[in-house]
Amino acid sequence: MGYIPNKTLEDLEFFTVCEQLPPHAITPLGKAAVLDLRPLDSPDAIQQALKQVSEYTASFENENHIPNHGFDDLEAAIKLLGVEGSVLEINAFRTIAAQAETVNTLLKFFKKFNTYYTELHQLGAALEVDVELKKAVDEIIDRFGEIRNNASETLYSTRKRIQTVRGKIGSSFNKALNHYQNLDYLDEIRESVIDNRRVLAVKAMYRRKVKGGIMGSSKTGSIVFIEPEATQQYSHELQNLLFEEAEEIKRILSQLTDFMRPSREDIAAKQAYLLALDVVYAKARYAASINACMPQWSEATEVELFAAYHPLLLQANAAEGKTTFPQDIHLDKDHRIIVISGPNAGGKSITLKTVGLLQLMWQSGMLVPVHERSRLPYFDRILTDIGDNQSIENHLSTYSYRLKNMKSFLRKCNADTLFLIDEFGTGSDPELGGALAEAILEDFYERDAFGIITTHYANLKVLANELPAMDNANMQFDNKTLEPTFTLITGEAGSSFTFEVAQKNGLPYSLINAAKKKIERGKVRFDATIAKLQKERKQMADSGRSMQLQADKAKKESDRMADLNARMKEKLTRYQELYDHNQRMIVLGNKLNAIAEKYFQDNKKRPLISNVLQLVEGENAKRKRKSVSVAKKEREDKKKLQVEMEKAIAPIRKAKKKAKKAPPPPPPKPKVNFKCGDRVRIKDSRSVGSIDTIEKNKAIVNYGLFTTQVSVDQLELVQ
Predict the structure, then answer these.
(1) Is the pLDDT of residue 679 over 70?
(2) Would the pTM count as exceeding 0.90?
(3) Quick one: angle between helices 628-661 and 605-624, nearest 10?
(4) Which of 37, 406, 650, 661 to pair with 421, CA 20 to 30 A apart?
(5) Residues 46/37, Cβ–Cβ less than 8 Å
(6) What residues form DSSP beta bridges with 198?
């Protein structure tokens, strides 16, 4: 079973993350449940929870939106169902019916879209669609929360009698009201209501003349409220009937409660299902708000984070419009421990907390803000020592408390442990504290534990350089601007930039120089060497990036020129082929034109055919020497040549034929002078009519059923 103490959750601000979740839940029970989230102690449970949240998050971006899962708390009703003889209230029954309908809708939806929501479908696999509970409630209680008249025969007859009596009460009261109004016994307000009963507002001087029961009087005593005698009798009868109705309703609800009692466990399971779904929904909404995703699961114990953000820092910086710098971190069996060094305020602690908090969120079934190709494993134990843990109550100094914490670490550290220690070894004499920290770190190393520590101690940096599965790392610092770059560089230790930071903050040079003289020269040289190496590494990295950019640019230009050259060559080849083809067609066309001209002059077919065949055979001889693909093209050219030849000869043939066989032109027809009464018809028409009138070369032709105006030139005389 996993061991993650509350101190770890506090150090890594896991509870603060949990406080971000309640606004995303939609039910009071869900809001309370997400505040109590804790890391899960089973890899299978973690993977299942992560997949559920990932599926719900994906539903926000597709068309298959998950139905509403809202519900009301049924804890009190569930407890009452466990008590024999208890009776649920009407609202409890309505809540049970609504819960059953909600669960039925969700179960049907997840069954239908099982391919998309496999894990969410499995979440309700133990439940079944149940229509009986809602049906039983709907038969008794209507949508307004009232007991139906037909819930029982007794209730139906009782309510019918109540309705009859109420009618009698109204009739008798109105009769008395009219009677005493005519006698002028009533005040201007005439009537009022006391204890849900209509009463007459009688003037005090006439109270003895009105028969009935006095129900009260006005504050001044000028009005006495009296229920008429006849109405009073019916009111007593109504009260008895209302009592009978209440007893019958109680009996019906008791019977319905007994029907529900065997389903108590099922009702509790449905509420637990809806609550679990609300927790998943809250996690999914929170994941969407921080752009989180589900990285890969690492079966081997390997932490590989790309573009990892601290979620709380990400939200805080976003609110202030600041930039948050992501980190890349890698831990595996060959690189189990990272020793991060560098200046204060450079991001060492944030990097350490980012790894720890993301691991806690991951093991609690929450998506994390990293690149999707990141990988995270399961750690059985996560131990932390972060911040100033001075204990006033126990009279422990910071160093004493940290030693006590290290004692706990040494008892629990193993190969399945992730330990995170900030400012390891501080709180005591630097040399003695550093030596003890080195011994403790070696012990962690021998236990095959995984961990990240931050330190300023040179001996720990040297140790990390000597042990094969331990690496140095530093938070990069710009030694020109003396500003942190918040970039983690693995493989080398970092300088604390103590004197540089002091210089930036305005300390006099004389004090800084005096401090340098007071410490060992070797320490200064060692720190200066580290700072120099960091500077050179940064310069080399900048140069490398610049050279890579230039190389990429040159490669792109080379590829562009090569592509342009290839396209130019291809275009020139096509132009050359087109030119050669056109030249050949011109030569053939000239030869063919010469043959056609000769034929036009001498009109001899035999030389014409001989010359054309000779021309074609010459071209065919050339084609036989070419490839098959070229031969196909030449055949097309031959066909075109023949077409062109036919086109060239066609006008000559046509002209010659026309010259030989042109028929003599027909003699012109004599012009007819039309007059009224002539029988005529329009040219190329069969209908015959007679001319009624002729005016300005236009004739009106009568066809019997209709007349039309036609030009005289379009008419011909019918004999």
Answers:
(1) yes
(2) no
(3) 170
(4) 37
(5) no
(6) 193
